Amino acid sequence: MKRTFYLVLIVFAAFSCINKSGYQIKGTSDLKWLNGKTIYLADLNGVRFYDTDSTVVKNGKFTFKGDVNTAKICGIWFFDENSEKIRRIVILENADINLKIISTDSIFVSGTELNDVYTHYENSMTSLYKKYDSESQFSEMAAKKVKNEITQFEFDFCLKNATNLVGKAIFLQSFYKFSVEQKEQITNQFDDETKKDEKIALVIENLEREKKVAVGQQFTDFEQPTLQGDMLKLSDLVGKTDYLLIDFWASWCGPCIMSFPALKSVYEKYQGKRFEILGVSLDNNESKWKGAIAQYKLAWKHVSDLKFWQCEAAQIYAVSSIPCTVLIDKNGKIVGRDLHPMEIEDILILLR
Questions:
Q1: Does one domain contain both 124 and 85?
Q2: Is residue 132 a contact partner of residue 150, using CB atoms and an 8 Å limit?
Q3: How far apart are CA 256 and CA 271, in angstroms?
Q4: Which of 212, 235, 251 is the last residue before a domain boundary?
Q5: Distance CA 14, CA 315 (A)
Q6: Which residues pair with 246 in a beta bridge?
Q7: What is the CATH number of the domain that holds 33?
Q8: Deepest in the core among 50, 69, 166, 316, taking most CB within 10 A?
Q9: Does any domain span residue 299?
Q10: Alpha-carbon distance 207 to 184, whole Å?
């Protein structure tokens, strides 16, 4: 399966050797049909930096020249034979950068330390995702094991590269997968200037909230409207069953929808004194929220303040991606976060 890796567009000072004379990207292409075509240098959204940031491929070669005040993440863009946009991430810094286009799927960048760092990340992630695609054909648990490998690689990469532009960018796109302890390890490596960055500051602020609702902590109460419009407190449910699962989801969330069959299977087996689910939706459209519950036959309890990502319950529980689950025992202690339904069932089986 083809994978495209997206970086959050941020600008940090880069700790690398800077060529005072500016940058020069020397490109070559093995694609004959690309001759005479225009290639663009732009940000990750395709917005060009300057009107002059374009060049034409001639005899399989092209060049970009310019100057930047600090290293930045950008993209080399062009259109393939089917008019589809092709993009290859380049770390733009004042140095000589080499770019070779072998095919639309194989574009190699080298010449600076930061570009080499990103290339290592991309190659490693491509290999891991191929492994994931292979393992997912056999079993969910095998796929989950590889998924954990991917997360561990991303954590190790971010920790090792916390002081450079690439490491910080990868952290911003991957932090939600990390544990509280892992996030602290990485953010502790950031300098004061990096911590002032708007996006990084938000992650750190959210981390402080997450500590209060981490595994091992007592639950924090909240109150949300039910399907009928009544107000329901989390504390009204905690202690009524051996375990209560808070499932943060939304009708527009594909992975949430994919998790429902396994979650419904566990619920049908253990609902009652042993297990209950409270679905907390991050929808902002009441009809879509209620429609999804009916469509997927979600028989458990549901609440939502219809505030999208500003959902107050999600804010309290430091939810940065969905689906997100929080498992609470009968004593009000948080015993798990982001557990797979099979892992939840393993816990419930022990109650027999």
A1: no
A2: yes
A3: 20
A4: 212
A5: 33
A6: 278, 326
A7: 2.60.40.1120
A8: 166
A9: yes
A10: 8
pLDDT of residue 5: 53
CA-to-CA distance for 32 and 40, rounded, in angstroms? 18
Number of domains the chain contains = 3
> Residue 9 falls within a domain, yes or no?
no
Residue with tokens 């909230």, as numbered in its chain = 209
User: Are 241 and 351 contacting, i.e. CB atoms less than 8 angstroms apart?
Assistant: no
Query: What is d(CA 227, CA 238) in angstroms, rounded to the nearest whole number?
Result: 19
For residues 42 and 139, state if they share a domain.
Answer: no
Beta-bridge partner residues of 226: 303
* Rounded Cα gap, residues 28 and 42, in angstroms: 18
Please tell me whether residues 105 and 134 are part of one structural domain: no
User: Residues 195, 258: one domain?
Assistant: no
The pTM of this model reads 0.74
- The pLDDT assigned to 258 comes to 93
pLDDT at 45: 81
Per-residue model confidence (pLDDT) at position 268 = 96
Find the domain containing 326 and state its range.
223-349
Q: What is residue 350's predicted lDDT score, i.e. its pLDDT?
A: 79
Per residue in 240-291, pLDDT (tens digit) is: 999 999 999 999 999 999 999 999 999 999 999 999 999 999 999 999 999 9
Please give the Cα distance from 70 to 306 (Å, whole number): 41
One domain, residues 148 and 198: yes
**Assigned domain for 1 exists:** no
In the predicted model, residues of the chain with pLDDT beneath 50 are 1-2, 4, 9-19
**Which residues are 38's β-sheet partners?**
56
The distance in angstroms from the start CA to the end CA of the chain is 42
Q: What angle do CA 236, 344, 171 make, to 5 degrees?
A: 95
- CA 247 vs CA 69, 70, 253, 278, 303: distances in Å: 46, 43, 13, 6, 10
Domain annotation covers residue 4: no
341 prior amide bond cis, ω within 30: no
Q: Name the residue among 207, 211, 117, 209 with its Cα closest to residue 170.
A: 117
Q: Which of 184, 212, 240 is the C-terminal boundary of a domain?
A: 212
